[in-house]
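Tip: read the tokens left to right.
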């Protein structure tokens, strides 16, 4: 019997690149991926649902989880905490199911330290001009916050080398297709398959 552990896929990229939009489009298609909902202390935006888009927590609740080591990663970003509950991810991978995370760049780099066997996908804007427009057109932020987000986005793009794949988000459908192709390709990787078969062979012939 070949025991398959799930693969952790991490989608990340600069603020305003459209991570949430791409993730929603991906999960609207037929997929076996399990989405790990992130946790945040920021206020919910219009249309966001607690427990679906994010788990919305108070700063006190979040800090208590940090102390108890209940987060796979967390980061403070423009004055708010973002993080990934550890238990769900570990349990789901153990059950042989793939887990999909959509998180900020700082958080993705922490996951990479804790979970180097994960697959890291960097979502890239079609152009920096386009990224600037997306951040400004959200209309939810003050001028200062927009400037901070743009500076943060520039610094995040420079961290691209830490990732396994880069997907340009020019058209949402194309970005989703590429992510699905990455998932398939990772399941066919020789190192991954060989490892699973080797374990099975050892068990059968020992």
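Filled-in amino acids:
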């Amino acid at each position: 019997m070949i025991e398959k552990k799930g693969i952790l896929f991490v989608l990340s990229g600069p603020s305003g690149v459209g991570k949430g939009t791409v993730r929603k489009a991906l999960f609207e298609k037929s997929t076996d991926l399990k989405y790990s909902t992130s946790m945040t202390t920021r206020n919910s935006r219009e249309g966001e649902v607690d427990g679906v888009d994010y788990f919305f927590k108070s700063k006190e609740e979040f800090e208590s989880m940090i102390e108890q080591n209940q987060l796979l990663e967390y980061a403070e970003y423009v004055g708010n905490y973002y993080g990934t509950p550890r238990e769900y991810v570990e349990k789901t991978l153990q059950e042989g199911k793939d887990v999909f995370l959509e998180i900020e760049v700082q958080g993705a780099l922490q996951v990479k330290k804790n979970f180097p066997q994960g697959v890291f996908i960097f979502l890239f804007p079609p152009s920096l001009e386009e990224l600037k427009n997306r951040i400004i057109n959200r209309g939810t932020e003050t001028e200062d916050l927009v400037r901070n987000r743009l500076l943060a986005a520039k610094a995040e793009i420079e961290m691209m080398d830490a990732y396994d794949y880069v997907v340009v988000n020019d058209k949402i459908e194309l970005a989703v297709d590429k992510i699905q192709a990455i998932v398939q390709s990772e399941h066919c990787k020789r190192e991954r398959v060989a490892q699973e078969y080797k374990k099975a062979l050892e068990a059968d012939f020992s």
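The chain has a mean pLDDT of 87. Helices lie at 19-28, 59-67, 86-94, 105-114, 128-137, 143-157, 172-187, 190-205.
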